[in-house]
Amino acid sequence: MILFEKTLQEKLSELYTAEIAELSIILECDFKKENEVYIFDDYLSDDGFIYFRCWLLLKGKNFFEDIKSDIQSFVSGKYSFDVADCWAEGLLYVADDAYAQNHEDEESIIKDTVYELYPENDYDGMNRSMSREPKGGADLHTMYPKLVEEIGELRSK
After folding, report:
1. Three-class SS of the chain
2. 111 contacts 5 by C-beta, under 8 angstroms
3. Are 87 and 54 in contact (CB under 8 A)?
């Protein structure tokens, strides 16, 4: 369970990038369309971004690798997802819930142990930083035209 939690935290940390944040904005944030340009509200909650990254992890190893290298692979035709709910908060509790099945202690023993042993993997820490600030507004349509148009059209239905 320690190894599972450690790997989970490592993968969540790997997904802490401006590009993945921008994908989250495109899939989840409010937007409007003006003069054929999608303009996104770029508010991203800390917890929501963690739950979104959990959702991405649950899509599998190949998807994880593809999306890390290019978020536009989301609309490559290789994958198909229901984007109505892009959160998977429950993944954060799998190791501790499994541990609690055979132990009376209901605290976050596994998660806390991994935090102590591997503090560099803290996916929720204040010391995290991205290589750049995530973009929002109309910039996302300029940066990722196919992705924004396909997702914007899908979400407008």
Report:
1. CHHHHHHHHHHHHHCCCHHHHHHHHHHHCCEEEECCEEEECCCCCHHHHHHHHHHHHCCCHHHHHHHHHCHHHHHCCCCCCCCCCCCCHHHHHHHHHHHHCCCCCCCCHHHHHHHHHCHHHCCCCCCCCCCCCCCCECHHHHHCHHHHHHHHHHHHC
2. yes
3. yes
Question: Cβ atoms within 10 A of the Cβ of 144, count?
Answer: 23
pTM attached to this predicted model: 0.92
Over residues 33-69, the pLDDT tens digits come to 999 999 999 899 999 999 999 999 999 999 999 999 9
SS3 assignment for 81-102? CCCCCCCCHHHHHHHHHHHHCC
What is the distance between the alpha carbons of residues 24 and 121, in angstroms, rounded to a whole number?
21
